[in-house]
Amino acid sequence: MTKVGSFLKGALIGAAIGLLYAPKSGKELRAELMQKKEDARDRAMDYTNMAKEKGSDLQQVAKDTSDDIKVTLKAGFEDVKGQVQETAEQVKSDASTVVDTAKETAEEVKGKAEEGKAEADQTAEVEKP
């Protein structure tokens, strides 16, 4: 049981015991008991309304926080997505450069090989007996 519930229960029991031992007529005692009951009910309703308000406030705070987190995560995702796209484009560009360089090097090697073959053929013809 909550502190408020325990307090209300204790207050009602204490009031009832106090009224039973008070020197009053039955009519006065019943009227006073009814008044105490109404007062306790009103206080209980006040606590209920405060609890509802606090619950509503907490719900709104949770919703706002959730919305903030969603916005932050979305922005972070967009940043990462942009960085990944940028990196992918750079890798593609670098790969293209490597392919072009490899082709150029292959052409140079082929040219040098042809020059070497031509020199070897000339040397072979000169040295023929």
UniProtKB/TrEMBL annotation:
Pfam families, per the entry: YtxH
Entries under SUPFAM superfamilies matching the protein: Apolipoprotein A-I
InterPro entries xref list: Desiccation-related_membrane, YtxH
Biased composition (Basic and acidic residues): 101-129
Region described as Disordered: 88-129
Compositional bias per record (Polar residues), positions renumbered to this chain: 88-99
PANTHER family from the UniProt entry: GENERAL STRESS PROTEIN, SLL0268 PROTEIN
Full protein name: Gas vesicle protein
Organism listed in the record: Desemzia incerta
